[in-house]
């Protein structure tokens, strides 16, 4: 990265067009069913999300949905040309920092086939034979 990554929690200025384009760039919109309008609606209903910008360009995104008892990490994406440069790690770290004070536990379904990425953040497989459904206990206390 030539300039520092800029992370924004629940960015009210995030462009639904740019986020839809990011989803398309990672192969999540091959059928064209994701639209900027639907993306804007999704954002308005999301518990927490983090946008990663580099020189004003959206290069990464992560989001979670849920409530104070439990949340599910739904998306963690990085532009293909920015992968393996710490963007996903930074987004995940910022999202977890926020969510640890918001939810008792977190879960995710690993679609990458690389559970080690999530294990670095403390997630553990619900069933070690599949490694897909993973949990993280928050330690949230009042």
SSE order: EHHEEEHEHEE
Distance between the termini: 39 Å
Major sheet: 7 strands, mixed
- Reported by name, the CATH topology is Aminopeptidase
| Molecular shape | globular
Radius of gyration (CA) equals 15 Å
Tell how many strands the DSSP assignment holds.
7
**Category by helix and strand content:** alpha+beta
Number of domains: 1
Average pLDDT value?
A: 88
Helix content: 25-40%
User: Which CATH architecture would you pick?
Assistant: 3-Layer(aba) Sandwich
Q: Estimate the strand proportion.
A: 25-35%
CATH C-level: Alpha Beta
CATH superfamily: Gcn5-related N-acetyltransferase (GNAT)
What low-confidence regions span 5 or more consecutive residues with pLDDT below 50?
Answer: none
InterPro entries: Acyl_CoA_acyltransferase (IPR016181), GNAT_dom (IPR000182), NSI-like (IPR045039)
Domain N-acetyltransferase: 49-124
Keywords: Acyltransferase, Transferase
Protein name: N-acetyltransferase
Please tell me about this protein's structure:
There is one protein chain. The protein is built from 4 helices and 7 strands. The protein has 142 residues and is an alpha+beta fold. It has a single domain, classed as Gcn5-related N-acetyltransferase (GNAT) (Aminopeptidase). A 7-stranded mixed sheet has the order 1-2-3-4-5-7-6, sandwiched between helices. Helix 3 (87-99) links the parallel strand 4 and strand 5. Helix 1 crosses helix 2 (36-44). The model has no long low-confidence stretch (mean pLDDT 88).
